[in-house]
Specification:
The chain has about 290 residues and is α/β, with parallel strands linked by helices. The protein folds into two domains: about 240 residues, Spore Coat Polysaccharide Biosynthesis Protein SpsA, Chain A; about 45 residues. The protein contains eleven helices and ten strands. Strands 1, 2, 3, 4, 5, 6, 7, 8, 9 and 10 form a ten-stranded mixed beta sheet that branches. The longest helix is centred in the last third of the chain and has 17 residues.
């Protein structure tokens, strides 16, 4: 893998922002200072009210200073879309790179994030989705959890102990049918295919599990690469775009039904899925 950099791909980075002016400087610097070159930077502001527009303009100029060759697009919504994934759709529609990194405005990444994750596409051309492990940071950027492995693998299978490339359907049948095992889109790089935009638009109709739906549909016809290093920092804070409740439980159930219908799942995996749904219902007070 030492010759990865000799086969540089065109990566478009999409930064969807809403009222994250306080984090934008560090987010954008963590993108343009990647050890793997960025081809295109697309920043979308969803009608923020916190001065984000000023910061974006300042950081766009800084991005050009650091990388004069970077393609730059700034998109301003006149009205708030009300949905983060709608910004993902718009960004992908605008992107011209061969690979896409949706880098949420309040997260950050290690300098070698892209270099490490892009290895998956270089190693195997059938990879359609590559991602790294994530660490959790608080609103001040202080690490509070080194990874998500225990919460993604409640069954203790050891699935995420090592990096791997495997068929997407195998990934779904072994673990992704149980729960969304990619906790943060900022850790993901997608191959820019027509299917990406197609499934993104379908995922936009979901309130809670659009990311899970997107990952699963893409993996039905391609491979997944997982890098076990925590190269992405997922920021958890009061303003994080997370909602829960009856809609969440309903959509988890819908995903489980889809997997059970379209996949030949092991009986043990089905029992884990049922336990996960029950756990989710209890968590959000649907049942005691």
């Amino acid at each position: 893998m030492d010759d990865v950099m000799s086969d540089t791909k065109k990566v478009s980075v999409i930064v969807p922002n809403y009222n994250y002016a306080r984090y934008l400087k560090w987010r954008i610097l963590s993108i343009v200072k990647q050890s793997y070159p960025i081809y295109e930077l697309i920043i979308l502001d969803d009608n923020s009210k916190d001065g984000s527009k000023t910061v974006i303009k300042q950081m766009a100029a800084e991005a050009k200073r650091i990388n004069p060759d970077i393609k730059l697009k700034l998109i301003w919504n006149k009205e708030n879309s009300g949905k983060a994934i709608s910004q993902w759709v718009r960004g992908v529609e605008e992107a011209t790179g061969d690979y896409i990194w949706i880098a949420e405005a309040d997260d950050i990444a290690r300098k070698d994030f892209l270099k490490e994750v892009m290895r998956g596409f270089t190693e195997d051309p059938e990879v359609v989705l590559a991602y790294s492990e994530s660490a959790i940071i608080n609103k001040y950027g202080i690490p509070i959890m080194p990874n998500f492995r225990r919460s993604r693998d409640k069954e203790g299978t050891g699935h995420f102990a090592k990096s791997y490339i495997r068929p997407g359907r195998q990934e779904i049948e072994e673990i992704m049918a149980i729960r969304c095992t990619i906790p943060n889109v900022s850790a993901v790089v997608f191959k820019n295919t027509p299917e990406l935009l197609k499934y993104l638009k379908q995922a936009e109709k979901l309130e809670q599990v659009g990311d899970w739906y997107l990952y699963a549909r893409l993996l039905e016809k391609g491979k997944i690469f997982y890098n076990q290093k925590s190269l992405n920092f997922f920021r958890i804070h009061k303003g994080s775009a997370t909602k829960r409740g009856e809609a969440h439980v309903r959509e988890v159930d819908g995903m489980h039904r889809y997997f059970k219908k379209h996949y030949d799942l092991d009986a043990t995996v089905k029992s884990w899925m049922d336990a996960e749904l029950l756990r989710t219902k209890r968590k959000y007070g649907i049942i005691k």
